[in-house]
Design a protein that fits this description.
- The complex is a heterodimer of chains A (63) and B (408).
- In chain A, 22% of the residues lie in helices and 16% in strands.
- By secondary structure, chain A is an alpha+beta fold.
- Chain A has a single domain, classed as Alpha-Beta Plaits.
- A 3-stranded antiparallel sheet of chain A has the order 2-1-3, covered by helices on one side.
- Chain A is globular and about 30 Å long.
- Chain B is globular.
- Chain B has 408 residues and is of the alpha+beta class.
- In chain B, 44% of the residues lie in helices and 12% in strands.
- Classes of the chains: A alpha+beta (63), B alpha+beta (408).
- At the A-B interface, helix 1 of A face loops of B.
Chain lengths: 63, 408
């Protein structure tokens, strides 16, 4: 599973980070770091919840 | 709270798109004993996705009202079409300068936002947590020692939230009551009180920044006067615009949220018991309470003519994105009228969407969670004190007063 990160949409709500800080890393300003995220199988459920928590719809799930 | 129409309905607004609804004057928006203004505002979901409200700002102007969360997201994510530059504070004085970063548009906005973001980032807020908790414990222990009831806003919510905020600004809370009075008069005062309070706040911010220029210390205002954007120091007006926004935004929003939350728990004993028994549920519950009881409406100004879902929005029109309306959109939240403290997938807009997402949201969330945790830990089963009625009100910022809780 892969999370496609739309950095232009991230506004720093940090809801993904609150759900799974080890999957969704933030920069010093609190926005998500650039680059898509390859999710380990064990983390899939958490990553899914994190991606779904974004108020801006900045995280896209690719199976 | 007084409002009156200052402008006729513009000719381009089709008469059948005008609705008799206002966040200031509709049923439940005026001060109401035992009211529920957020639920009252949800009545708009019986109507169209966009309509025109003839009197829907503090100074009596009409706005388009966007009812669906999805549409509010489109408006708030598009600052090129829907600008937030409208000098809401300065206009009370007949002046025109932006509160920063809220009333700046990209790309200027991003420069100031980047300057301020690290000060209130999620990681920075983690470092503030122990001070937040210490303050909550101090206040609640004092309340518990004093008796079996209390005026929540005056004895807990305001002194808690305002103290944390003043600490962030680098101010002692000797003048806390004075600051709360200024904020109250500015946000909820009449047409004489509002400009007077605005002038008082400006004078205070100007004086503070001058003092910090002379003798910088380790605080927010010293940071600001020493900061640079585009390799130049901030102008006096930029410092004033930023200081004023921080002051206004931080003073009573968190307090109002805590007031609405404790009001809810006092009236819903089952939920109170649940959170008391299982405090680990409070983080998720706080999100649902933010969804159900947000307090702010965002207003944007159209920068050009645009047809939006059948509405002929014209350049200069105001567009209202009220958080309490989006948060009760049935297309976004199943059974939005039901407050479910275990609700998942809760992408509410209490802190707005788009580039102007509340800068203080991470601190606000922490304060609300810590406030509820310590309150439930230290105060036994509580309810609204018999013979009293909390008074709620709508308007520019929703609020609650006279909240007296009892645990005798």
């Amino acid at each position: 599973m892969k999370i496609i990160v739309h950095n232009d949409k991230c506004q720093g709500h940090a809801r993904c980070w609150a759900m799974a800080p080890h999957i969704f890393e933030l920069d010093d300003e609190g926005y998500i770091k650039p680059g898509d995220i390859d999710v380990a199988e064990a983390d899939e459920k958490l990553a899914w919840k994190g991606a779904k928590s974004c108020p801006e719809r900045a995280l896209e799930i690719e199976k | 709270m007084e409002t009156f129409a200052t402008q006729p309905i513009p000719a381009h607004v089709p008469p059948d798109m005008v609705r008799d609804f206002s966040l200031f004057s509709s049923p439940g928006m005026q001060p109401t004993p035992n009211g529920d203004p957020q639920a009252s505002a949800a009545v708009v979901h019986q109507g169209p996705r966009i309509f025109y409200s003839p009197v829907n700002t503090r100074d009596g102007r009409g706005t388009w009202v966007i009812t669906r969360a999805q549409d509010q997201r489109r408006v708030l994510q598009d600052p090129e079409t829907f600008s937030s530059h409208r000098s809401i504070f300065a206009s009370a004085l007949g002046e025109s300068w932006p509160m920063i970063p809220l009333e700046l548009d990209p790309p200027e906005h991003g420069k100031f936002r980047s300057l301020l973001n690290p000060l209130l980032s999620p990681k920075r807020v983690m470092a503030l947590e122990s001070a937040v908790r210490e303050r909550a414990i101090f206040l609640i222990d004092r309340i518990a020692a004093a008796g079996t009831n209390c005026h929540v806003m005056e004895e807990f919510a305001f002194p808690f939230a305002v103290n944390i905020f003043l600490r962030f600004l680098g101010l002692s809370d000797d003048r806390l009551d004075e600051f709360v009075t200024w904020a109250n008069e500015l946000l909820h005062g009449d047409n004489v009180q509002r400009p007077a309070a605005a002038r008082t706040i400006i004078a205070f911010i100007d004086e503070l920044s001058a003092e910090r220029r002379r003798r910088p210390v380790d605080d927010f205002m010293s940071f600001l006067v020493q900061s640079k954007v585009d390799d130049r120091p901030l102008t006096d007006q930029e410092i004033r615009g930023t200081g004023v926004l921080l002051f206004v935004a931080g003073l009573d929003t968190v307090a109002a949220a805590i007031g609405f939350d404790l009001n809810y728990l006092a009236r819903h004993q089952g939920d109170q018991i649940l959170l008391r028994r299982e405090p680990s549920r409070i983080v998720l519950a706080a999100e649902e309470l933010l969804r159900a009881y947000p307090t702010v409406q965002m207003i944007r100004v159209a920068t050009k003519d645009v047809d939006f879902e059948g509405a002929p929005i014209r350049k200069g029109d105001y567009v209202s994105c009220a958080t309490m309306i989006a948060n009760r959109d049935p297309l976004e939240f199943p059974h939005p009228e039901k407050i479910d403290l275990a609700r998942e997938d809760n992408r509410h807009t209490a802190f707005a969407y788009g580039p102007h997402r509340c800068l203080g949201s991470h601190l606000a969330r922490r304060e609300i969670v810590v406030g509820l945790e310590e309150w439930l830990k230290r105060i036994p089963t509580f309810r609204i004190k018999e013979g009293t009625a909390p008074v709620t009100f709508g308007g520019h910022v929703f609020g609650i007063e006279n909240l007296v809780l009892d645990w005798s």
